[in-house]
Amino acid sequence: MKQLLLGNAAVARGLYEAGCEIISSYPGTPSTEITEEAAKFKEIYCEWAPNEKVAVETVFGAALAGKRAFAGMKHVGLNVAADPLYTASYAGVNAGLVIGVADDPGMHSSQNEQDSRHHAIASKIPMIEPSDSQESIQFMKLAYEMSEKFDTPVLFKMCTRIAHSQSIADCGERVAQPVKPYVKNIQKNVMTPANAIRKHPIVEQRNKDIELWSIDCGLNKIDRGNDSSKVGIITSSTSYQYAKEVFGDSISILKLGLVNPLPEKMIRDFAAGVETLVIIEELDPIIENFCRSLGLKNEIHGKDLLPICGEFSQNLLRQCLKDMVPVAGEITTGEKIENLPVRPPIMCAGCPHRGIFYVLSKLKLNVMGDIGCYTLGAAAPLCAMDMNLCMGASVSSLHGWNKALPENENKSVCVIGDSTFVHSGITGLATIAYNQSNSTVLVLDNSITGMTGHQQNPTTGKNLYGDPAGRIDLEALARAIGINRVRVVDPYDLETCEKVLKEELAAAEPSVIISRRPCALLKGVKHNPPLKVAEDKCKSCKMCMKIGCPAISMKGGKAKIDSTLCVGCGVCTQMCKFSALEK
């Protein structure tokens, strides 16, 4: 049965057809939909884990118990999961184990542009990379076959364009897998130094065996082009789609679906049929460097012609390679529109974070930031953030900041969301309590994982399916860690927020302030009627514009409220000294 499937939905379909039974993931764009789509299959148990490390450890245990398992995450999440990942490479598996990772070239929703292939190489784990929805299904089934055949976890790499593009896929039936019996084997599964030493040579041989297996497994293929062409392309993933569209059948292409280990023999054989090799790969020159290491006699081009930063496109290939490779036809991009206004991301109307960031900006505090919707507090006009590094870093960084500059303790805070706090902020708070820095931590509890699309987390009391689940009590947790001063505020109440912030900054001990109000976009949240402007009272002072609410603008010298956006939160009414903003 053929279907038009989003790449991530096709991955989920592949998990279903391959007989996967256990999935544990942490949401992160562009990987989130894999687990959300997989949860629609009743045969697969799915859950959100507190973080990616926990997710990988969970599915490692499930695979050890004998059931095929999967963990999904974005590229920066693989950094968090690296600890169990690298040792799982030595331990191997029982039932098949696949770890999905979605890279984000162009940084559409990420703080860096890392290339996850480096993790595959360093951990010595095979990595598969599909180029469309059909391959996402087909390659996932091959990933489990490989995992069990070679006793290894398998990395399954997506990128933003493949994850979030749709293409036709031929859907098959689920093939249920028998539970693989667990046999206790201390030498295999207990990675003490003595056991790990014996496993390392096995891992090295395993990758050599996988390389030979990959020649005929269907992951790599050659598209033979015009026999007269003396140029050959080696590529993978979305770059293959661009190359086919731009260059058509005029050139031979070696398309790699297994990007670690790279197939040396296949590359040598392909290179022998051409004079020049052009390596097309987004981000780092991993395939290119491998080809150069083989001592091939070919002229090799890659990053000397193509950028190392950002996403590729058809037009980019056409422009960069026009003098090297014959182009098939023209790309029609439509009429070019000049001077389009920029549309930067902004906190939604009624966002509970807006009031807190206004107060932080007003008090001119140093603010250590974190990953989530509240990262937008760094944007104008609030500009209320000094750093943003990675999940959970705000709490630990504040501790280090205050240890380095104790004279600034009373004017420095950190902000972190409820989901991010559970992900990796708890240990930062533990070091604050244990090492006693006078740090003020703001947990912005909007009752959901907001930035990735409203996924549940351990503080919401609901699981992935929306059913009742265990719930972390943030106040009790902070006190259990050793924080004596724990306050809860409503971020819509600016006066109270400012008062509590000043009190906690003045206190000579660590404190936690929980800013609690649900995300304005949650379905169950009831809103007030939109506000309106009494134009006769408006003095055009623009104070209401200082909170950066998209529902407020200035027209004809007067404030104007967009009634289709305004949720009546009332934050702006507290800014206006002339009572021009009315309910």
Describe this protein's structure.
Helices cover 34% and strands 18% of the residues. The strands form six sheets. A seven-stranded mixed β-sheet has the order 3-2-4-5-7-6-12, sandwiched between helices. A six-stranded parallel β-sheet has the order 16-15-17-18-20-19, sandwiched between helices. Helix 1 (7-17) packs across helix 6 and helix 10 packs across helix 13 (314-321). The mean pLDDT is 95.
What are the key terms here?
alpha/beta, 7-stranded mixed sheet, about 35% helix, 18 helices, globular, 6-stranded parallel sheet, about 575 residues, 24 strands
Q: Helix share of residues?
A: 25-40%
**What best-fitting shape do the alpha-carbon axes yield?**
globular
With strands numbered from the N-terminus, the spatial order across the biggest sheet is 3-2-4-5-7-6-12
The chain-level mean pLDDT equals: 95
Helix count, per DSSP? 18
Q: What percentage of amino acids are in beta strands?
A: 15-25%
Q: For the CA atoms, what is the radius of gyration?
A: 27 Å
Q: Based on helices, strands and strand pairing, what is the structural class?
A: alpha/beta
